Automatic annotation (TrEMBL), chains A, B, C, D:
Pathway the protein contributes to: Metabolic intermediate biosynthesis; chorismate biosynthesis; chorismate from D-erythrose 4-phosphate and phosphoenolpyruvate: step 7/7
Native organism: Sphingomonas qomolangmaensis
EC annotation from Swiss-Prot or TrEMBL: 4.2.3.5
Cofactor requirement: FMNH2
Reactions catalysed according to its record: 5-O-(1-carboxyvinyl)-3-phosphoshikimate = chorismate + phosphate
Gene name in the database record: aroC
Database matches in InterPro entries: Chorismate_synth (IPR000453), Chorismate_synth_AroC_sf (IPR035904), Chorismate_synthase_CS (IPR020541)
The protein's assembly and partners: Homotetramer.
Protein name: Chorismate synthase
Binding site for FMN: R125, S126, S127, N237, A238, G281, K296, P297, T298, S299, S300, R322
Signal peptide residues on this chain, from the entry's feature table: none
Molecular function terms, GO-annotated: chorismate synthase activity
Pfam families, sorted: Chorismate_synt
Amino acid sequence: MSYNSFGRVFRFTTWGESHGPAIGAVVDGCPPGIALSEADIQPFLDKRRPGTSRFTTQRQEPDAVRILSGVFEGRSTGTPISLMIENVDQRSKDYSEVAKAYRPGHADYAYDAKYGFRDHRGGGRSSARETAMRVAAGAVARLVIPEVTITAWVEAIGGDAIDPARFDASEIDRNPFFCPDPEAAKRWERLVDDARKAGSSLGAVIACEATGVPAGWGAPLYAKLDSELASGIMSINAVKGVEIGDGFAAAALRGEDNADAMRPGEGAPTFLANHAGGIAGGISTGQPIRVRAAFKPTSSILTPVETIDRKGNAAEIATRGRHDPCVGIRGVPVVEAMVALVLADQKLLHRAQCG
Amino acid sequence: MSYNSFGRVFRFTTWGESHGPAIGAVVDGCPPGIALSEADIQPFLDKRRPGTSRFTTQRQEPDAVRILSGVFEGRSTGTPISLMIENVDQRSKDYSEVAKAYRPGHADYAYDAKYGFRDHRGGGRSSARETAMRVAAGAVARLVIPEVTITAWVEAIGGDAIDPARFDASEIDRNPFFCPDPEAAKRWERLVDDARKAGSSLGAVIACEATGVPAGWGAPLYAKLDSELASGIMSINAVKGVEIGDGFAAAALRGEDNADAMRPGEGAPTFLANHAGGIAGGISTGQPIRVRAAFKPTSSILTPVETIDRKGNAAEIATRGRHDPCVGIRGVPVVEAMVALVLADQKLLHRAQCG
Amino acid sequence: MSYNSFGRVFRFTTWGESHGPAIGAVVDGCPPGIALSEADIQPFLDKRRPGTSRFTTQRQEPDAVRILSGVFEGRSTGTPISLMIENVDQRSKDYSEVAKAYRPGHADYAYDAKYGFRDHRGGGRSSARETAMRVAAGAVARLVIPEVTITAWVEAIGGDAIDPARFDASEIDRNPFFCPDPEAAKRWERLVDDARKAGSSLGAVIACEATGVPAGWGAPLYAKLDSELASGIMSINAVKGVEIGDGFAAAALRGEDNADAMRPGEGAPTFLANHAGGIAGGISTGQPIRVRAAFKPTSSILTPVETIDRKGNAAEIATRGRHDPCVGIRGVPVVEAMVALVLADQKLLHRAQCG
Amino acid sequence: MSYNSFGRVFRFTTWGESHGPAIGAVVDGCPPGIALSEADIQPFLDKRRPGTSRFTTQRQEPDAVRILSGVFEGRSTGTPISLMIENVDQRSKDYSEVAKAYRPGHADYAYDAKYGFRDHRGGGRSSARETAMRVAAGAVARLVIPEVTITAWVEAIGGDAIDPARFDASEIDRNPFFCPDPEAAKRWERLVDDARKAGSSLGAVIACEATGVPAGWGAPLYAKLDSELASGIMSINAVKGVEIGDGFAAAALRGEDNADAMRPGEGAPTFLANHAGGIAGGISTGQPIRVRAAFKPTSSILTPVETIDRKGNAAEIATRGRHDPCVGIRGVPVVEAMVALVLADQKLLHRAQCG
């Protein structure tokens, strides 16, 4: 178990830096015989792609994925699937300041403390660019779990939340914010614009729901479904909080209010609520899986912040370069991908143990 | 990586059910030469032990731990350390109802869906009793990281939070709630008593701080320190949310407000804030590590709840047996243990890669 | 993946020292619903048990196994199965010499070099006593693969081999050597007796065959069936060589002689030979799996050998204590167990990926 | 732990097929700050490269490796190192027969049995072409263990062995067989030529020695150095046997003859023999590590062999295409690479546990 792999039997490994020649992923353990081509992956990458609106970074990356192995005559062979995206629009010179001084909140100082030096160009390995490969791997994972539908959206930006009463899933792909509430989407245009113009950035909350997961995936403890999801989602750049079901709100409830009461149903029980987010005792119950993730605001901002340089002297840093004013927005397809990757792995693990 | 193990090079495996003859853990990868005896572990178990006040379950378990291997002449040998606690006070007959019908919110239904049947006595493997072995393993982990001090406390019960202005660490061990705010502790006496008498239960929020972690532990992505902590803490029974640093609150901040600005300091920089909870880019910064966990209310309650039985018929269940009215309280030493276990593993991993 | 665990999804962890209070194993990932009690395990332990003839160590150990978890009402629950054997007949005083000086060929010097000190009593963790737990775990593994029959035997002792023409499987359990050739068994009585009386020891070659493995278990490369078997068998104390099928003899063959030609058969092809030992490209072919293991002679011998003591001074050592004159003999049930453990794991892995 | 990765903390994953666009490896867990460029890797690939003499396959592959990540300004950054080689000289049409019928001894039948279909072009994933990436990853591993020198050679071809008395390490790179005995090299010219012309193939035995390994690397049992080496080497295509030290010959020795007696030495003991191959109790002793591997003869031969086709009908197959008459020869740099990869991993693991 190494540092850049995730999963137990359906497993992927990513590599690459923001300003290196390419980024890539190796997906291992994929079942054989699954119809797979670049066209199954590209739409998810396009959803995450930078430069598509003024609310995301202006870096222009086609993010065209290539499958280099593991597929023969249009089907997965069961051997490792190598995915690669060449980096196109690097402007490394933008980062000369980052080489010298540390951006507060960013990985700069911690990387130097750990490794002694770092690839500072565009954040190197710590760049959110890595998440493109999670999205690509996640597209493969989705094919392993065709019974499951995964949808994520932005629930709040900079503390301004959607109105659950206005939730409309069909709106999510109609605005640049993956926002299911059209009124919130309008407010966010101005909110994000203002932050961008002010050289600032905003945090966001992403919610994700997976329907179609049968009862029985997961495990009692260290691979419990909650824990695997938390691990996967917390491993995304900028995420600092994860909730399953009601999460922290459940901590304020009484037992009888938090209980997801059951009634007899067709084939499966009918649940009267879903406080648990579709997971009880670490194992799926057949209800929709519900997860939320907190994305902190982008650390690379134009607003000058007090810091130190590599020699330990006082400095001030204002990060030029092209950055997302709200990195959480493009986190939506990434959260979906991680949920898909966890569920594909759990499906295969369940099959291993329970036949 | 299997279902009942945790960690990468400092690794432990737990086994045992609530009403079996014993529970245990195997701690593997412990460095040799560490002074270790039962006396190093027992105090942490005593802190978690049931039956010590009317605010926890009345099951009487001495929880006396035995070391069965891996220690010779008072020191760890580098080989696996086997820890065992015999179960003493089982009253399996209390659980006849649980055998027949599913407690909403509990693992009962999901276990049956996954495994086809289950050990229903006291919740079997899904019982919080398993956490005793995490506490025991965590006590060993603490000896691997003597430079680190870990302290957890209850921050809120049933939605009633402490006043941060009254935080006093020395109060934590002076009340049955691990509460650092004496006024909140008084309120909670009544709150928990009322819930207990009403046959209900309450959720809780636990906070934990680890000081003394040097800059550089962790990894950029899938083993990032945030992700390892989230995985470990979310694997604890009843936990449904995890935050690192400001967590969800960070999602409402602007970039300049979330930045932990730095100034030149002695040996290490002086940080002006710690929104990131001591972790940037997945790697420790040298600041205190800060984590929070949301515990849902205990699912086993006396208040009757609508449910189904094993045959799918409508039923109502009121769980007799002895249960914690607020399982989060005894979660305090468990959260501390998981943080210790993650940090011990990360220390050794850092040493492996960075010498 | 830690130091004392083996397997990927069907996984076990052993713990314990030769002269500690007990030894044990945790079997994790076992499918639920399998009928399992101590009576399924004990016969295999009895086969390996010391003190049953004058050709093995005279240590008297009943090796009575207890199941401490993971089984409810006679069936596996899918949660970890904890197995424990209490040590009964330790005579630690026999080992005072071993504490001071290093037995050549034994782990003594290497342990001190690695860990700085060691539990010298009976070899501590390096004792072949650990293999009892492999046998116990292997008995569980056999229940996971009821379609497979595994049989091992001794093929040679001290260079004196059986005559393949006289191979009779029904003889294996009729002599104290697990020898399928009754004439060889007679010769070995004298051979082993002479070595024992001379204070010497003998090496042995063990062969093992598993029939009933369907085509398709295994993987192309790093988890190829050959590699998993080699890893498992080479991890047994005293083993220094492993062969699959013809092994080293295949290196002397020409391609057309080594080819296992195929003819049409019922359901599966008819193979005209089995040079490959039932594995091609890392994957089972449906033929019998054939493995061989070389056990070196026991390193603990009465014959004095030149060595150094812990301080680096010249010394001579003659190991008293009770030792097997030919540790390979009792390796027979251990090799069977490791083959069972590998195959159970591979069966579940195959099911995970290929449904 | 998935199917195409190897190692625990210094870990690599390979991908790619014989006739796909490229093959590659991701090396994860490499320490930071190591000087590394393509020039450090290419010489080892050149040693393994096909088409360099008439004794290897005539496929012309420049095997030019590119580093795509993990290196910045000439030094490893501590993040994953992606290595890629583009395939140049594929002639997939040569394999139309292989698509239809199974080569006995090859992976063809087993792959179809497992996956339902296969990429037949050049053997797909089962091609020895994959070993190029082990050699590339191994070149990185060597930089992690500069204290170790690893040398492999061919010890026998088709049963014709070198004369140990004529062993001369400086000869190894002076002939196309990596043969340390010039007289044997001369004999092998004729032997291999004859086999090639006859449309046959030959097996080989490879020996490898690693000097400079300090005492203390390894682990007592499931990650014992013998076991890790056996696992790694047995995972190489065509290998069917592995020996550590005297291997099977040790099984014919008496205890006192197999003992590697010790005398006081400078800093470390002086060993009077090395039957154990530098490993006792799973841990290195400071002596040279000695390993041997048996390579079976290439399964793809021109000599017609009886077989069945994909539909189960009787057939005969003579494999055209370009194949090594003795695949063991090019196994020499591959064995060296696997030994380097195991030792690098073990060095870091030892550092993790023992500081």
